[in-house]
Write a structure and sequence with these properties.
Blueprint lengths: L3 E6 L2 E6 L10 H16 L5 E6 L4 E3 L4 H4 L4 H19 L5 E5 L2 E3 L1 H7 L3 E5 L3 E3 L13 H8 L2 H10 L3 E2 H6 L5 E3 L4 H14 L2 H14 L4 H15 L3 H11 L11
Parallel strand pairs: 2-3, 3-5, 4-6, 5-7, 6-8, 7-10
Antiparallel strand pairs: 1-2, 8-9
Bound molecules: acetoacetyl-coenzyme A.
Length: 259
């Protein structure tokens, strides 16, 4: 990966999108790197949670690359949208939890990238928005779909139609982010959360992610069956035996083994 730095830190990893000269904007090469990132992390059983952030103090990701998009034909535009959508969906459905640590601009594809992560926390300097209609296009990496599902259809429509940027406090108010931190404390907070998640029973954590994600796409009757099956799948694992045994024996559980 030429544009993403990946650092393993014990049970979790931190991936930093590193294209500072363009405020970490997503061109085809960065999208390709994101695709590779997911493959690398998925193949590494030691990584139990992933933090995603942007390099520099100014920007998480300032959107899809406007220079690259400026000369696309209709067919090429659709293909570029598909490329981004495929990668973001792969990120969204990776088995382990992902935390977006939004350290600055999260505009267009940057806001969309953060919405493909499980959890969003941001710096007090962060700025969010879907500026696409101001550029003559629609959001193209899932923004029309994930923003409407995450906040509300009405709020998503307002943000997308007006192309207005919002600051961290408004993002918190509408439920786009879970928490705001002073910029210099953001990464440590994200890493602490990743470490907390990674120390819980990994098979159970992954089952929770799958149950929530897949359950949201179907009726409640179907969703509770998804939950039942994943709930059942945790039993007889070494971690379930140890976790419940430790409780009953009034002792602290041993580190979970992912087994
Ligand atoms: N694409 C390509 N290059 C970008 C970029 C982008 N999305 N955002 C910033 N850059 C580049 C700038 O062109 C500039 O490069 P040069 O130094 O070579 O001129 C460099 O990053 C620094 O940017 P600025 O000088 O503009 O920095 P600033 O602090 O004055 O402004 C900003 C920061 C408000 C984020 C501004 O850069 C900006 O508005 N960027 C574009 C944001 C945007 O519209 N994003 C949505 C893109 S469309 C999209 O994402 C579609 C989709 O859904 C898939």
């Amino acid at each position: 990966m030429t544009n993403i730095l990946l650092e393993k830190k014990g049970l979790y990893a931190v991936a930093t999108i590193n294209r500072p000269k363009a405020l970490n904007a997503l061109n085809s090469e960065v999208l390709q790197d994101l695709n590779e990132l997911v493959d690398i992390v998925n193949a590494d059983e030691e990584i139990r949670a992933l933090v995603l952030t942007g390099s520099g103090e100014k920007s998480f990701v300032a959107g899809a690359d406007i220079g690259e998009m400026s000369t696309l034909t209709k067919a090429e535009g659709e293909a570029f949208g598909k490329k981004g959508n495929d990668v973001f969906r792969k990120l969204e459905t990776m088995p382990i939890p992902t935390i977006a640590a939004i350290n600055g601009f999260a505009l267009g594809g940057g806001c969309e990238l953060s919405m493909s992560c499980d959890i969003r926390i941001c710096a007090d300097t962060a700025v969010f928005g879907q500026p696409e209609v101001g550029l003559g296009i629609t959001p193209g990496f899932g923004g029309t779909q994930r923003l409407a599902r995450l906040v509300s259809p009405g709020m998503a429509k307002q943000l997308i139609y007006t192309a207005r940027n919002i600051k961290a406090d408004e993002a918190l108010r509408i439920g786009l982010v879970n928490a705001i931190y002073p910029a210099e404390e953001l990464l440590a907070a994200a890493e602490k959360m990743a470490d907390t998640i990674a120390k819980n029973a990994p098979i159970a954590v992954r089952a929770c992610k799958k149950a929530i994600n897949e359950g949201l796409d179907v009726t409640m009757d179907e969703a509770i069956v998804i939950e039942e099956k994943l709930f059942g799948s945790c039993f007889e694992t070494a971690d379930q035996v140890e976790g419940m045994g430790a409780f009953l024996e009034k002792r602290k559980h041993a580190p979970y083994q992912n087994k």
